[in-house]
Amino acid sequence: MRRNLVHPRAGELKYEIRGIVDFADQLEKAGIGITWENIGDPVAKGEEIPSWIRDIVADAAKHDLASYAYSPTKGLLSARTFLAGQRNRQANTTLSPDDILFFNGLGDAIANIYQWLNPAVRVLGPDPAYPTHSSLEAAHNGSVHPVYKLNPDNNWLPDMAEVRKQVAADQNIAGLLVINPGNPTSTIIPQGMLEEFVTIAREYQLFLIADEVYANLVYDPRGFTSLAAVAGGVPTMVLRGLSKEVPWPGARCGWVEFYNSADPIFARYRQSIEEAKMTEVCSTTLPQTVLPALLGDKRYEKHLQKRRERYAARANQALKLLDGCEALRTVPPQGAFYLSVTFSEDFMKQPVARPAANPVAQKLLDAALASMPADNYDKRFCYQLMAATGICVVPLSTGFNSSAPGFRMTLLEPDDAAFARTLQTIKEFCA
After folding, report:
1. Most buried residue, 4, 6, 20, 151, by most Cβ within 10 Å?
2. What does pTM read for this prediction?
3. Which residues lie below 8 Å from residue 200, measured CB to CB, with a gap of 6+?
4. What confidence tens digit (pLDDT) does each residue in 374-389 have?
């Protein structure tokens, strides 16, 4: 090409959750049946959408303006009014419909949040973290995403003294990110710790981002506190959506709630995000149209509760099945539908060297391992696990920017026996 077309920060864009699919596809062609445990899509995994939800969507699709026309850039007023009222009742806030901005899924929202930050500004986020956050924060600055570590030996919670220390040491840190419930950890940040984040943000004049897309899938909702409820006057963005909750990932419908925008710098930053969305015209209309009817239906809470109970039961089943496996360490999930597993120190003292299921798969595995660093323990483990058993999980290191080696799998398998076989196979692979 006449000029180099590649953006200088393109190398920071990583999404192992889907990237590992390329290797899985090659193994399928080699005759290996794949058990997909990499992507959190309940619908693809076989969860059936209730007929009453489908009826509401189908009815709206019959009306031209409700489905096929542009919506206002911020989103339909009916949807924003409903959400503002709901959030004010739940979190005791004063959210206005004008404080809500719709996006084509939270991936779109996250991209805009980091893209329109001053390139010198950093957002301190968790390790491990959902890769869209860590990749796009790194890409906007062109250097490694700054993180605070979540401790698997302490329910995947951070050391708040370390968070404060990092903020004090780096003048470029202007924001703090919390993912609650955690992805990939599926654990909950207690209210007292959220209040510590707010205290640090207030003291150092930072803004806050809370990714709460799994908030309504907390197994015991009484144990969850939205950051908006304790943010006080600190500028805050809360991210929510329909993808995991309804579930309706194909709708690509997420939104940002802006709280405490009086600070003139934060207000201008917020305005830049809204202006950027204006250049896209708007977000998808149909899911906004049906949002009040879906979330306001008296059957919706029962629908959520049934899903919470199913994932909690699946989490308990996983913990019991992996109990006694000295190679693997688990933390009980508290929300969402993921299980993050880390390796014991003794297990990692010896390299994993398991053969693939057949000669063709072995050649594919050898080629894949040759391109990986020898010390990338969990990624090598995941590729060997898949080549030997067909089970596709995501390494924590490359998949979630994690300093703790391990893997994430889902709790979405609808068949009890199939889920038990998957866990038993992983346990035997580690023996």
Report:
1. 20
2. 0.92
3. 160, 163, 164, 167, 176, 206
4. 888 999 999 999 999 9
